[in-house]
Write a structure and sequence with these properties.
Layout: H1 2-8, E1 17-21, E2 28-32, E3 47-48, E4 54-61, H2 64-71, H3 82-93, E5 103-111, E6 116-121, E7 130-134, E8 137-141, H4 158-167, E9 181-182, E10 187-192, E11 195-200, H5 214-232, E12 239-242, H6 247-259, E13 265-270, H7 280-289, E14 293-298, H8 301-315, H9 324-335, E15 340-342, H10 347-351, H11 355-371, E16 375-376, E17 379-380, H12 383-386, H13 397-403, H14 412-420, H15 437-448, H16 459-484, E18 489-491, H17 497-503, H18 508-511, H19 519-524, H20 531-534, H21 546-551, H22 555-563, H23 565-568, H24 575-582, H25 591-604, H26 609-617
Parallel strand pairs: 12-13, 12-15, 13-14, 15-18
Antiparallel strand pairs: 1-2, 3-4, 4-5, 5-6, 6-10, 7-8, 7-9, 10-11, 16-17
Helix pairs in contact: 2-3, 5-17, 8-9, 8-25, 9-16, 22-24
Length: about 625
């Protein structure tokens, strides 16, 4: 079983592999190594301590040097790896060791003395961990596909499917694979005396600081960014960077280049077939400013046709829009040059970078102007302040039209749910009678209206908190899988917990003043970021011309996929309606991507279930 699981994640660790089993045979670990820190055999995993404790671990503990100094008085270190630091931290603090770790991680420790298994995942879900319980046994892995040989059958979880069709990601522990759960970010799992217990060890708290000035927040923000960059650049190999042409990745690349002369390689993807999909001039401007060599992947429809099945396979299940495809291509390019890249994930959720926040506030400012009630939590909304920024929404008119088609001025939770609901134009394609959409809204509302850590703060905090808790882990799934598919480690310096905890205290009118997206970052780094980048009003994530391809050169490719007999027999779907409505979908509709990737997922995993079962039964 261990070897079957190991073979399915071999791409994650091209530098070595290892197995370990406890003396009584009740626990077994397997590991695939991507060597970044301590490249010697001393860092090999699974790693065991003299007291019999064993660990298998994926990730990086960035404060391992400081922890090593703190723990060396009672632990004799045999390596310079961060893996051994986790073992020493567990020996000192037990389960609370996670509170001392600064980084991205998913690990499992077998405590031989206590006969206890302890599993933990980092605070934000940068590194993945999935598990399943089968016949009194617990199996876990970095990728869900490694668990498929152990399942009695591969089935779709209807609860998770309803969430996916609504958001294009799931919002709880359930995954699209029935009986496979994700260990949520900031959670740990223990197994002892036959009992399995999952607990949350960290959560972000929105306790807003009204006592300091904007200049204080800018200064503190820069201090914490500098500190995060210093530790994220620790490695025994050169580090490159993704540069998309947006603020977050550009800032990280610029700061990294100042830190070390070796960090001068940047990577970018573009589409030249249609206007509006090439942002390379902004990436090149950043590259020139930082004296970096910019490597560009020119991506076309043929690349999509040849690679999309691999993308779905490595994702484990479809998630979070078509940006995963170009990221797969750019990661393949980066892996030819470096083993570690830096990315800008987290900036949109932490600093208010999504256009939909402006759309939501636009509606609320109109309502407030009519009602004469401007105060909303810690953020004063006025129509006068938001109007100058409405030019940013020029490209989003179709989304606004759909958003305002129903429910205008309803409760905030209903309005934000509609704003992020990707299924509003899925009518005949999906058999909603078999799925519980009401339960999806209830689950959304429980998170959106949660007052344990958001309390009575601004609409802005409610929106960003939900995206931080639910969308961000989905984006990090893409970040991890698309890089690790090529044996490449991706680091995200904006997701450093001291920085995240600080940003949760910053008032919304500092982060999002007058509807200015990422106002805090723009103001704090106006002397670092290029002026053209600061003035951009057309940044749209990682746009992919799927609409143009599916209407043109890839039309036959799509027709063949949905025309297959198995596609026509899927539960919950009407493939004939899917094909008929493809052409009618707008450029901004995620329906096209969502349904295609879902069908390809069925073909890659469900239709080949026998191949996975055979891996442990031959």
């Amino acid at each position: 079983m261990l070897r079957a699981m190991s073979s399915l994640i071999s791409h994650r660790g091209p530098d070595g592999s290892g197995e370990w089993s406890s003396k009584d045979g009740c626990v077994g670990f397997v590991h695939r190594r991507l060597a970044i820190i301590d490249l010697s055999t001393s860092g090999k995993q699974p790693m065991t301590a003299p007291n019999g404790t064993a660990i298998t671990y994926n990730g990086e503990i960035y404060n391992y040097i400081e922890l090593r100094k703190e723990l060396s008085a009672q632990w004799v270190f045999r390596s310079t790896s961060d893996t051994e630091v986790i073992l020493a931290a567990y020996d000192r603090w037990g389960d609370d060791c996670v509170s001392h770790l600064r980084g991205m991680f998913a690990f499992a420790i077998w405590d031989e003395k206590k006969k206890k298994l302890f599993i933990a995942r980092d605070r934000f879900g940068i590194k993945p961990l999935y598990y399943t319980r089968q016949n009194g046994r617990l199996f876990f892995a970095s990728e869900a596909k490694a668990l498929l040989p152990l399942l009695p059958d591969i089935r779709t979880d209807s609860t998770a499917l309803a969430e996916y069709l609504t958001f294009q990601y799931t919002i709880g522990a359930k995954t699209l694979f029935e009986q496979v759960d994700a260990l949520l970010p900031g959670h740990s799992l223990t197994v002892q005396d036959g009992n399995v217990r999952v607990r949350r060890y960290w959560d972000v708290q929105y306790v807003v600081d009204f006592d300091h000035s904007p200049s204080y927040f800018e200064g503190r923000f820069k201090e914490l960014i500098a500190d995060s960059m210093n530790i994220h650049l620790r490695a025994d190999v050169p580090i490159g960077g993704y540069v998309s042409g947006g603020l977050d990745s550009s800032l990280i690349a610029l700061l990294a280049s100042r830190h070390d002369h070796r960090n001068r390689l940047a990577f970018h993807g573009r589409f030249l077939e249609f206007p509006g999909y090439d942002e390379s001039r902004y990436a090149q401007e950043v590259g020139d400013l930082a004296d970096m060599t910019l490597h560009i992947a020119d991506i076309n429809a043929e690349d999509f046709k040849n690679s999309i099945n691999d993308v779905i396979y490595h994702l484990d299940f479809p998630v979070a829009g078509p940006g995963s495809f170009p990221q797969f291509m750019v990661s393949a390019l980066a892996a030819k040059h470096v083993k570690v890249v830096l990315g800008g994930q987290g900036g949109d959720e932490l600093l208010g970078g999504y256009a939909r926040y402006l759309v939501a506030y636009f509606e609320q400012s109109i309502k407030a102007a009519m009602d004469g009630t401007y105060q909303q939590g810690n953020y004063v909304v006025t129509i006068e302040s938001i109007v100058p920024n409405l030019g940013l929404l020029r490209e989003y008119k179709p989304m606004i039209k759909e958003f305002w088609r129903e429910g205008l001025f309803e409760d905030l939770d209903k309005r934000y749910f509609r704003l992020i609901d990707r299924s509003t134009d899925m009518v005949g394609e999906i058999d909603w009678s078999s799925l519980d959409k009401d339960r999806v809204f209830d689950a959304f509302r429980e998170i959106f209206n949660n007052q344990e850590n958001v309390r009575k703060e601004a609409y802005f905090d409610k929106m960003t908190h939900f995206d931080f808790k639910c969308l961000l882990p989905a984006l990090l799934q893409v970040e991890d899988r698309m890089s690790m598919a090529h044996g490449l480690e991706s680091r995200v310096p904006l997701l450093d917990h001291p920085l995240v905890e600080f940003l949760a205290t910053v008032p919304a009118d500092v982060k999002f003043k007058g509807g200015q997206m990422k106002q805090l970052m723009k103001t704090a780094y106006r002397d670092v970021l290029p002026a053209d980048l600061l003035k951009r009003r057309d940044k749209m994530g990682f746009p992919v011309p799927v609409k143009e391809w599916f209407d043109g050169s890839l039309r036959d490719f799509i027709t063949d996929i949905f025309g297959q007999q198995r596609a026509r027999a899927r539960d919950y779907f009407n493939s004939g309606v899917v094909l008929a409505n493809f052409q009618a979908a707008s450029r901004f509709s995620r329906k096209t991507w969502g349904l295609l990737s879902l069908e390809l997922w069925h073909q890659r995993f469900h239709d080949r279930a026998a191949e996975f079962r055979a891996m442990v039964r031959s």
